[in-house]
Amino acid sequence: MGQFRLLCFFFLCLFGYEGLVKGVLGLGCNWGLQSTHPLPPNIVVKLLKDNGFDKVKLFEADPAALKALGRSGIQVMVGIPNDMLASLASSVRNAEAWVQQNVSNYISNYGTDIRLVAVANEPFLQTYKDMFVQTTFPALQNIEAALIKSGLGRQVKVTIPLNADVYQTDSGLPSGGNFRPDISDLMIKIIKFLQDNGGPLTINIYPFLSLQADPNFPKEYAFFNNTASPLVDGSIIYTNVYDANFDTLIAALEKNGFGQMPVIIGEVGWPTDGDPNANVDNARRFNQALLNRIIQGQGSPRRRTPPDVYIFSLIDEDNKSIEPGKFERHWGIFNYDGSIKYSLDMGNGRAIVPAKGVKYLARQWCVLSPSAIISDPNLAQGISYACQYADCTSLGYGSSCGNLDAQNNASYAFNMYYQVMNQRKDSCSFSNLSVITTVDPSQPPCHFEIMIDIGKHELAPSSNKSSAARIESLLTALILILTFVICGVH
């Protein structure tokens, strides 16, 4: 009898192993694709799984990413960019075509577990000046109609990721929360539609941006474990801006009759470069405390049920717009190549792990020639040209490379351009002011990059991937059946 129980225990442990590896249930992240040298999608999916992410949000229906996510066990929220809203709003046929190509196709042919379609991305930002106010809701309605017509209405839900500026509080307290007056009627229509169709409301909350935008904002209040003075709202005490912001939304929902509306945090995180407050220490502090909340299933004072949270973001994007700030390219908890920026406990005492199988360009850098003269008029022009096409955001004030001297500053710019151009020989010829070296010029914390060799990465055929996934599923099912048979008999 004892032997059978031991065998039972062995099978259960074996069966439960994958769950242990995955770590926290409901751990999501954003996977951005605006990189000059993106990680191959199969490596990214492995990176997600190795670190316990079981949900991912894409900002667009990228074919390679959606195929790689097929049969991965990861739930997908796929986004529709704002520039597609007018077309989708104008015709339900356009919406049907989009759903067929970007949802039905990947679910049926690749086994991609698409659960949500994110219609637009922060379309009501005040900086957009009402550009998408007329098209967002009709596009949402047409996508929902298209999902229903395709037979996916129950499986795939719609949502709209919104910036936290869609609500406000005149009292300065979360309990005073309500929707912005100029879009209040529209917000209520959208929320009612989402509720009627089983879709959640998605909100993006950025404590970093609260700190970055206001020089008088109390820095400690942006973090979870802090020494800031609390905000007292009646019987509730708020110790951080994340909870206060979230509960301002909850108060707005309650005021308008949507107290039970499910809410997703679509984006939240902390960047590591491009601003004096964007650094590794602050990012680790914020993101580890955020992960701890997710692991512990912690909600907010006003809503104890924890929301699904999508960390922003997985990987740095060196080709992202820096209009909001230079930090925009540095939100990843991993570097551009999937290497680790800083330590994190991903749950169950499991350390964050890097991407595997990444292949790089040759170990060489383009730097300022030792014979170059700093006063050479071509030097400034060369640096400007390099930074026009490559990412020089780490050179800014308070950034990781902000303390370089003039020579190394030029070398950093030259090298970024050289790497972005795949180390082409003619890309290190800045009016004869540069040379190629095999000696790493990095000066911590400033790191001189070597880019991913995109040409060396070849995705495995999808049929092979599918077969492997089927074999894994069959083995899992067999183990479960054996467990029940043995344990049930004895």
Compact summary:
This protein is of the alpha/beta class. It is built from 13 helices and 15 strands.
Helix content: 25-40%
Rg (C-alpha, Å): 25 Å
Count of distinct strands? 15
Span between N and C termini?
Answer: 7 Å
Which class of secondary structure composition applies to the elements? Answer: alpha/beta
Strand order in the sheet with the most strands: 5-4-3-2-1-13-12-9-6
How many DSSP H or I helices? 13
Order of helices and strands: HEHEHEHHEHEEEEHEHEEHEHEEHHEH
Largest sheet: 9 strands, parallel
Could you tell me the mean pLDDT? 90
Oligomer: single chain
Task: Enumerate the spans where pLDDT stays under 50 for 5 or more consecutive residues.
Answer: 1-24, 458-490
Content of β-strand = 5-15%
What spatial form do the alpha-carbon principal axes imply? globular
Can you offer a commentary on this structure?
- The protein is α/β, with parallel strands linked by helices and 490 residues long.
- The chain is 38% helix and 12% strand.
- The chain contains 13 helices and 15 strands.
- It has helices at residues 2-22, 41-50, 63-68, 85-90, 92-110, 136-149, 184-196, 207-213, 241-255, 280-296, 377-389, 406-420, 462-489; strands spanning 27-31, 55-58, 75-80, 113-119, 157-159, 161-163, 167-169, 177-179, 201-204, 231-233, 236-238, 263-268, 309-311, 365-368, 434-437.
- The longest helix is centred in the C-terminal third of the chain and has 28 residues, at 462-489.
- It is globular.
- Residues 1-24 and 458-490 have low confidence and may be disordered.
